[in-house]
Amino acid sequence: MAALELEAQLAKTPAIYLVVDTVRQVVDIKARALVLDRLALHGVEVVVYRPFFSSREVPMPSLPAIWTIEAGPGDTDREIVAPKELRPYSSGEEEEEEPPATVAPPQAGPTPTPTPVPEPPVRYRAHLENGWDLWVVDALPAQDLPSRFAEAVRDGWRRLRGEDHRTRPALALAMAGDDARRLHHLMRTGTKILVLATP
Amino acid sequence: MSLELPPAMAPPQKVARSRSWVPVLLVVLAALLLLVAGTALVLARFGEVAFAAPLRPAPAADAPGAATLEKRAAAAQHALERWRPRGVYIVVDTYRNRLRLYRDGELLRTAPCSTGTGIVLRDPRNGRQWVFDTPLGERLVERKVKNPVWAKPDWAFIEEGMLPPTDPNERFDPNSLGDYALYIGDGYIIHGTLFKTLLGRRVTHGCIRLGDEDLEFVYRRTPIGSRVYLY
């Protein structure tokens, strides 16, 4: 019921929102309560960073809840095009021809941009306003003892060199690489995510 | 008589001498191993590691009576139904560059389209910028035009390295938008294209381009006021 109320809040606005159903293991891309697309999850886990020799309990989020992206990978740096100087307008250059698929742009009209658009990654993280992170990954973190020990040693070495510490707990969503790419551009600042834990 | 030693006597002495370094090597190796293990343990002691646990969410603190729950659920369901689109609507997947046309939830047409590159254009004169993104979210078909004429904005000239013309008549382009245009607000248009080989790719300045037949199909079946969902 709380989930319905929360979704009703989101459906009031014209923005796209995501619904992560941790029980049915799907991510719905929605707007106005309409499912626009659905991505299957391979797994959902809570990930916390803690000392290797610690046995602290893993904190669990209260659900259902609306999470908001504070900084996301969808806010990517963009390629900037800037002509060095502008020449006077000349209408004589307006002849248009159908170009081959990958050649230089024609000289006028809504110019095709041949610049290849970079392919989004399959593993990325978004910072959420509630202090958590949301990970989208193609595989959940390895949990066998040797892998964890190796990771602890690597992290210890990083800390010894004064590199950053990762302390935010995270909800990790494992999905197919192509699905992760499809979600990437929606993971931008302000995107709302409704996280459900009951069918 | 021969004074030579029996052949079996000499080699054992050589073996004993040549193997005398083995214990030393073992000690050195053990010491190295201890050093590496100790260093690893110390590093691991200070390092943190990702522990993953299955999600067992804490229930949200919310336990009103059953009657209240039912009322609230009905109200929420009603609100959702009110917002859900009816009639004809368009859905555009900007990652896969696919446009889908629906009527009351029934899929009428899927078509390849072109959407925005996401590239930024900067005016060298004053630093003004344009982001060639297809907007996300819900929009409405505000108007429909047959044989549309494109009034080229400044960026269309700047991108070509030209100064925008001072004569407004120089901006009109009757060829680029195809036979039909559906205006969805803020200058974004669903229109045709001269560059059909680029359908299915992100090549536009934010508009959605369709092939001729798909555009006509969408134009004829989409009334003004229909909703467009872009994701």
Q: What characteristics describe this protein?
A:
heterodimer; A: 199 residues; alpha+beta; 8-stranded mixed barrel; 10 strands; 17% helix; globular; B: 231 residues; 10-stranded mixed beta sheet; two-stranded antiparallel ribbon; 16 strands
Would you give an account of this structure?
Chain A has 199 residues and is of the alpha+beta class. Chain A has 3 helices and 10 strands, in the order H-E-E-E-E-E-E-E-E-H-E-H-E. Chain A has helices at 2-11, 145-160, 177-184, and strands spanning 17-21, 26-31, 34-51, 62-63, 65-71, 80-81, 124-128, 133-137, 170-175, 192-196. In chain A, strands 1-2-3-9-8-7-5-10 form an 8-stranded mixed barrel. In chain A, strand 1 (17-21) and strand 2 form a beta hairpin. The longest helix of chain A has 16 residues, at 145-160. Chain A is globular and about 75 Å long. Chain B is of the alpha+beta class. In chain B, strands 3, 4, 5, 8, 9, 12, 13, 14, 15 and 16 form a 10-stranded mixed β-sheet that branches. In chain B, strands 6-7 form a two-stranded antiparallel ribbon. In chain B, a hairpin with a 4-residue loop joins strand 3 (88-93) and strand 4 (98-103). Chain B is flat. The N and C termini of chain B lie far apart (104 Å). Classes of the chains: A alpha+beta (199), B alpha+beta (231).
Largest interface comes to: A-B, 92 and 89 residues
Largest pleated sheet of chain B: 10 strands, mixed
Helix content of chain B: 25-40%
Mean pLDDT of chain B: 88
- What is the N-to-C succession of helices and strands of chain A? HEEEEEEEEHEHE
Query: In terms of quaternary structure, what is this?
Result: heterodimer
**Alpha carbon gap, first and last residue of chain A:** 10 Å
The run of helices and strands of chain B is: HHEEHEEEEEEEEHEEEEEHE
Q: Which structural class should the secondary elements of chain B be placed in?
A: alpha+beta
- Average pLDDT of chain A, to the nearest integer? 83
Helices of chain A, by number, come to: 3
Number of strands of chain A: 10
Kindly name the structural category of chain A: alpha+beta
Q: In percent terms, what proportion of residues of chain B is strand?
A: 25-35%
| Radius of gyration computed on alpha carbons of chain A | 22 Å
Largest sheet of chain A: 8 strands, mixed, barrel
Shape descriptor of chain B? flat
Radius of gyration of chain B, CA atoms, in whole angstroms:
37 Å
- Regions with little confidence, pLDDT below 50 for 5+ residues of chain B: none
Report the uncertain regions of chain A: 103-110
| Number of continuous helical runs of chain B | 5
